């Protein structure tokens, strides 16, 4: 039988551990995760992870498959998500934009949202080109600065926020030396100059991506549109074409979201000038 939580365990610590466990369970969907794998993913002892997961199951926040013992997200999360959807779900406005990108380019197109130090993929639409990259899928998370969506968002944060993030994030340890602080800073500078971000196969060799930030009504990069495909489809001669198309659609979505006041903010549109300049080009 698991021991009760230590009396000295602060409530904030428990909340953080529970949130980390729920994110780890979500990352293992749809097949579910074993207790040991989930514990390892969040840096908890297995008995502690099991105790917390059991409590979450009692609350309906996770389920456990009696056949194989794997943990999956529970029904209460669906109800909570449905209740929050009206405030945070941008997919209804973004879906036609993502579909246009996929059809116009032939590639796989995506919408990702910033959540703290990560991006979460919300939408995927596959274009007609028969060879596809499967690095991204709905629900996958990446740290800011990793993958084109996360790099596009990071690039348009203020310099102090970028530096604070790089100080606390060890991207090289989790994603290899190509994500050293200096390498990420260089890609941020290029993305700011171009207006769009490029991932030249840094996650999976041969799978390239490009992304453009989408801004909330306060002018902050809160989402990103991106395209992924095989390397030869992202040759330098085509990057400018794809980048400008991404920026045009990012402008369209930023404008639509600003008009609707997402997420729960006053309507407005203070997008950075690089989007307006691209749209103004003949």
UniProtKB/TrEMBL annotation:
Tree of life domain: Bacteria
Residue ranges occupied by any HTH iclR-type domain in the UniProt entry: 12-75
Boundaries of every IclR-ED domain copy: 76-259
Keywords: DNA-binding, Transcription, Transcription regulation
UniProt cross-references to CDD domains, sorted A to Z: HTH_ARSR
Region (Disordered): 259-282
Matches recorded under Pfam families: HTH_IclR, IclR_C
Protein name in UniProt: IclR family transcriptional regulator
High-level lineage: Bacteria, Bacillati, Actinomycetota, Actinomycetes, Propionibacteriales
